[in-house]
Amino acid sequence: MSNLYVTQTVNGDLQPVKVNGESSALEIAQDEVKVKSLEVDGISRVPTPTSNEHIANKKYVDDNAGGGSFSSFTLTGDSGSDQTIEDGNTVDIEGGTGIDTTVGATDKVSIALASGAALANLSGGSGTTFLKKDGTWATPTDTNTTYTAGDFITLTGTDFDVDVKDEDNMASNSATHLCTQQSIKAYVDSQAHYTGVAYSSTVIKVYPTAFCVNDDYARSPNMIEDDTTDTLGFRVGHSNEEAYAFVPIPAGYSATHVQVHASASTSLAANCRSYNYQTGATVNLEAFALNTNQDITDVNGDSLDLVIKYMGVSAATIVYGATVTIAAN
After folding, report:
1. CA 34 to chain CA mean position, Å
2. Does the pTM of the predicted model rise above 0.85?
3. Cα dihedral sign for 275, 254, 191, 251?
4. Which of 322, 328, 320, 62 is nearest to 201 (CA)?
5. What CATH class is the domain 193-328?
6. Nearest alpha-carbon partner for 103 in 94, 148, 210
7. SS3 content of the chain, % helix, strand, coil (to 5)
8. For residue range 63-98, what is the model confidence (pLDDT) as tens digits?
9. Helices (H), 191-260
10. Which residues are registered as beta bridge partners of 103?
């Protein structure tokens, strides 16, 4: 830049300044300098500006307008000690047990339950609310407050309990409790239909096809009687024949009553026995009349099964089936 020479006397009015004898864009008064257009190679030894009209150099701007001069801030929470975050520190948002945090591509942090995480250690302290079965919110007053949904979900203090039934025979017959997979399978397996036999939780139905005749008269098969209009059943071929029905008793149950349904109510025409399917051993129990619901000596299905014997007292009698009442042990 050319040297600057003032060629006119300053007398309090703005005077043009000439550079090397030529007019310039600079005017100088006694206490004022005006620049219409100015090109500066460098500014040094400039005092710290204190007013909007003061000039500043690059160093002052760099020192005070960012560029690594972040100071700090305080990180706080519901518990724990406050932390001072300095320039260059990284803030880690930690999820904790069962909670995942994910940093996204758009300056976001997502907080969610971890995959497969269970709700556990729910706080029961004052101010914490819980959603009740009726859809309303409840606020406990202390950690011993208990909330029950139905009969199997209980929230007590910090414990969340779901009660289940592990009953192979489902004897409690609950309308509100859950049951284990193992007990469901065991119960379903025990309800399978055997030949001529069907099960419920209280009754075993014994159909005519479940009876087999013995060889006292002839080795004849079980004969289905269909001569009577709109009636089916079975009958023996001769009064010397007898017939047996083998009835498995589910584990966890005992047979308590037996009734043989027939076209006649002949006395002492039926008999029941306990049966060991592994050895064939039987033990005689009670004898009773047809069409009588007989209270028998209990046959425990955990170790034994039941045999119903029809005495075959008359070849004219039609047997329609039998009912075995069972009860949980």
Report:
1. 80
2. no
3. negative
4. 328
5. mainly beta
6. 94
7. 5, 35, 55
8. 776 555 567 888 887 788 888 888 778 888 887 777
9. none
10. 109
- Which pair of structure tokens corresponds to residue 299? 């046959």
Structure tokens at 285: 């129990």
- In whole angstroms, how far apart are CA 222 and each of 30, 53, 225? 139, 121, 9
Give the DSSP letter of residue 209.
Answer: G
Per-residue pLDDT tens listing for the chain (329 residues)? 444 444 444 454 555 555 555 555 555 555 565 655 555 565 566 677 888 777 777 777 777 765 555 678 888 877 888 888 887 788 888 877 777 888 877 778 888 766 654 444 444 433 455 555 555 555 554 444 555 544 455 655 555 566 778 888 788 888 777 888 888 877 776 665 555 677 777 889 999 988 988 876 665 666 788 888 889 998 888 888 889 999 999 888 999 999 999 999 999 999 999 999 999 999 999 999 999 999 999 999 999 999 999 998 888 999 999 999 999 88
Domain boundaries, the chain: 15-64, 130-162, 193-328
Which amino acid would we find at residue 308? I
Output the 3-class SS for 159-194. Answer: EEEECEECCCCCCCCCCCCEECHHHHHHHHHHCCCE
Q: What is the spatial distance between Cα 73 and Cα 109, in angstroms, rounded to a whole number? A: 19
How many other C-beta atoms are found inside a 10 Å radius of the C-beta of residue 256? Answer: 16
CA 262 to CA 270: how far, in whole Å? 11
